[in-house]
Amino acid sequence: MTPSIDANSASPNVEARSGANLEAVSAAKTAARTELSALRPSLVELADSLAQNPELGFEEHRSAQMVRVLLEDFGFVGSAIDGLPTAFRMEAGTGPLTIAMLCEYDALPELGHACGHNLIAAIGVGAGVALRRALDASDTPLTSEDTTPQESRQATSGTASGALGDARVVVIGTPAEEGGGGKIHLLDAGIFDDVDLALMAHPAGMDLLTMPSLAVAILEIDTFGRAAHAAAQPQAGINALDALIGGFQAVAMLRQHVPDGVRLHGIITNGGTAANVVPDHCSARFMVRTPHMTELAGLVEKVENCFRCAARAVGANAEIRIDGKPYAEIRRWGQLETWYRSNMRELGRQLTPIADVAGVMVGSTDMGNVTQVIPGLHPMIGIGNPSLNIHTAAFAEQTQTEAAYDAIIDAASALAMTAIDFLADPGAAGHQTTTSSSGKE
Ligand SMILES: [Zn+2]
Ligand SMILES: [Zn+2]
After folding, report:
1. What is d(CA 384, CA 399) in angstroms, rounded to the nearest whole number?
2. How far is the CA of 104 from the centre of ligand 2 (A)?
3. If I label 222, which of 15, 151, 259, 301 is the partner at 20 to 30 A Cα–Cα?
């Protein structure tokens, strides 16, 4: 169940939180930023290489390999995931908590890296490596002296530096975000089971705290009738295209009785083969989106009824299946957002209020499913041109500019710094959650 929105419960005063050793936190953040400056050439090279060799979801073999090899160079160890060869989990260090930085690297047909996942991969690697190195360099616990020696020993058993607040840092390669739901497969496979915090950042026109997001299910619809000569023997035919068109019209009527924010849209992918033949088989692909995952099953059922009943009306049959697993909306974790906003400000970047883009920018991501079960963030990082939209050729070009390279470093810094805030006060992150809901900040 999704928690209700409770904006008043957020505690924006980071400095006042108990348990954190603010001096150690500040030193660790500075160390992470210094590391990222040094990592810049490697991260830019990775992002450019991915941009120049785009691969589609579940086919990102070279891309995943490139990211893994770089992580190995930086001391991370791990492997591909059984059954998902373009996914991986690489890790370094150990500690009582596990921080995951997520990489995407799938591209779009014909447009290449028009969603900027080449940058997401570089940000994930940069954030993971910088966090690991900052923790290694820290000889002071991130938490205050309130912690008892016994707790300290328990928490640090097996750590390299011995500093309370040390962590296992994992970088997870998550394939096929553009429709394949790689993260959902990885959740099902247990790859996130030990993860306490999952972070990633997505390129965009501007800096945003999150992506206004919708839950989505994709329907594949096939209608079956009976072929006949459309002029000579129309009475012998059952029109599978009419069945589909009737379904689209029924959805158009349904549209006025759905909650605000719902999106219902689709295309006919097979409308028959010849105008003088009554089509006996037609197909459509249809998307059902809603701000709340809890409403999705009910909406899908209504849309299915539109197509089934329209098919029956003309004597045809409709077969409907859900393509893949539905994406959930992003669940928003208030304290993590507060830390991220503060860190972005420290980096000199000002977040655009979500309300300013509500209704203009909205999307769906399998990161939504991750944030439903694990504290996490999916902020958007501006890559130098606020007027650009993702999924355009211009956006793909923009990912190979100095502004995009700056965005890699700033986003990776902000994620590493937010992870440090979390390690200094892990109990705080589980509280003060808000629901996703597009436009509510
Ligand atoms: Zn995309
Ligand atoms: Zn994307």
Report:
1. 9
2. 8
3. 259
